[in-house]
Amino acid sequence: MMPNANLHWSAQQMILAGLLDHTLVGPFDSSKPSLSSRILPWSPSASGKRMRTQMQQLFDRWTSDDFVLALLLFFNQFSGSAVPWVEHSIDATWEKGVIRNTREFYGMVTKCGGCITKCLADENCKQCIDALNAVDTRDQVASYRTVVSFESELLRDFSYCILQKNNVFGCSASIPKLPYVVPMQTWRGREITVDDARKLLIGHLDDDSAVEGSLKLQTSWKVACGANVAYDQFPSQNQIFYENSSGKDMWYDPIFRVETIDGRTVWAKRHYKVRQQTKIHPATFRFSVLDNGVTSDEFWTIAGAADDLSWIVFHYAGAASAVGQRYIGGLLCTPDGSVPKDEKVLEEIWDVLRGAGIEPWELFVVNNDEMDAAVAGPPPLDYFRKDVLKVKEERRRAAAAVS
Predict the structure, then answer these.
(1) pTM score, two decimals?
(2) How far apart (Å, rounded) are the C-alpha atoms in residues 70 and 64?
(3) Contact at 8 Å (CB) between 381 and 218?
(4) Potential cystine with 293: which of 34, 159, 174, 303 (Cβ 3.0-4.6 Å)?
(5) Pairs from 273-277 (Cβ < 8 Å, separation ≥ 24)
(6) Is the distance from CB of 250 to CB of 198 less than 8 angstroms?
(7) Which residues contact 110 (CB under 8 A, 6 or more apart)?
(8) Is the peptide bond prior to 335 cis by the omega test (within 30 degrees of 0)?
(9) 54-80: burial string, b at 16+ Cβ within 10 Å, e else
(10) How many whole angstroms separate alpha carbon 372 and alpha carbon 368?
(11) Count of beta carbons in the 10 Å neighbourhood of residue 191
């Protein structure tokens, strides 16, 4: 059985959340709140009060990711040393001070004034900016859900100009190197090859490059559960891996459902460039994508897979440098998105995940209910792939004509 992450963390978080009511958070004493914490928002005690509120909100989510984020934010603000995972912020805050906030605002207006004007004149884009202003964008769970709830070309252009092109906020981040995850070494009784690893990605997709045992479905894999709440909060996660038109590199198209913050249910899609890292190991890959105007760079590892293609485990580590974000996670994927029920199979999977630094209780089960997904309409599974298939078909016809 899959352990319950909420139960594992509930006792510890209840204790820590209770302590927030009776202890100091930085210079703020919740039992004896000072006058300055109430009327002087720039004061150290007011800063501590805001941190206490934010930590309480994160603890109330009952996840290990949010628990860690709360502690990282606290130490970044009050330890005297910057914590790389959360040191950068693209928000206007009292903690930054008037001079820095003014400098960043001036940079936005002078370098991206046109994009800002167009975004704020559009109801959808402005709604997103207003919603992002209400959260700490270092909170990847809240900020990413907000972005995908309102994504549009105007929002993409707005973000690209301010964050990616001009890096107005001076952010940086690199892909985490720890934990080091050992790639799977053998598959189907022999040492894994470059071709094996590519075919494992393609998985069950109905594709000319699919491996023996593929079910020839519309998707390569479906995510059954994952270990990063910011991304695994989304239901109906379809993975589509396929070779590009030249066959040299690959594409990865995740198609997932979003329950937006304003109550809609829609499909979202991404289009990743995939480059196999053969000099490191056949089962390692570099992924890159422009996601709503911000580039994400990721290192993926196939940590394990069943010989019969009934499951596969991925580990990923990534960074969105333009917003100063780092992240790690893991995925258990199956053909239909269900968690295997056989206890022996589960134990094998748990061992693979533990080897990637992930405990079973850290996993979030993805909702792959087809009835729920029907509300959003048919998923756009071939949105990107159809163009590659068209090019390949044209080449086949040209080759046949010549011969």
Answers:
(1) 0.85
(2) 10
(3) yes
(4) 159
(5) 273/249, 274/201, 274/241, 274/249, 274/250, 275/249, 275/250, 276/194, 276/197, 276/198, 276/249, 276/250
(6) yes
(7) none
(8) no
(9) bbbebbebbbbbbbebbebbbebbbee
(10) 8
(11) 9
